[in-house]
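re: ur question from yesterday

yeah so i grabbed the chain u mentioned. its 292 aa long if i counted rite. heres the sequnce exactly as i have it in my notes:
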Amino acid sequence: EIEELGIAEFNERCRESVFAYVEDWNRLVERIGHWIDLEDPYVTMDTDYMESVWWSLKQHWEKDRLYQGHKVVPYCPRCGTALSSHEVALGYKDVIDPSAYVRLPVIEGSTGPVEPGDNLLVWTTTPWTLIAHAAVAVGPEIDYVRAGTAGGEIVVVAMALADRLLGEDYETLATFSGAELDGVRYEPPFSYIPGTDFGPHGHSVLLGDFVTKADDVIREVSEWITANTTLDAAVKARAAAYGPAYEQYLAFKAIVRQAHGATSNQYARIHIRGRGAAAEPSAPAAPVANGG
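ran it thru and got these structure tokens back, copy pasting raw so excuse formatting
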């Protein structure tokens, strides 16, 4: 949309938008008692301001105070730029993204309980990352099966999820722990980035203790709600009313979030674990392995 409008026109409209609310901003600043110079304010889009920033950056560079690092920041896929906290606050909202299952064929040279041509059945909540896919994570203590389907395909899935994902018409050829899959190599979903670009373990199976089955996470959340003395009886009763269906885990999160006694650290722990395993309501209820 921006390119269709034109960069120059887009920038001009941005400038107009900024100055459209100057008077409202000045009145707010005075009402809240914020001590700034309204008569001679600095404006970040002015050339003088930009040049002062570049000057300051140059001083740090010449004194060897700059370094390259990595930081997770909000990102706008439309503009292709990072977002400031102010921009995020203007339109932040929770959305439901699709999850995806992919088959990753095991390739020659792999060792362990699988054979070339077997398909690792992998689930991810971030399918847009598959184009730059790096590795697959499995739970080292989770049991997996090598199963033959009615269609003649051989897949590797978590044992607890085989019935749910494959139905009843399959044959168990072998069972093993996730630890035995360590180092298995496979064909990536896209070939744009060679596995070697990710280091010696690119496009291979890695062990991750963060990988869980859906039922494990539900049980953990349920036990936490039951044991947490800061949640009143009414909240616990609402939590107990939900069944084991995995999408209802979202309801668990909502209950905990609304509870006045739940601390931010306690909620963050549940939220982080949920991000690694939450499925959209229409998707099967749990991961086989988390794709990186």
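noticed a couple things. The mean pLDDT is 77. also The longest strand covers residues 170-177.
anyway ttyl
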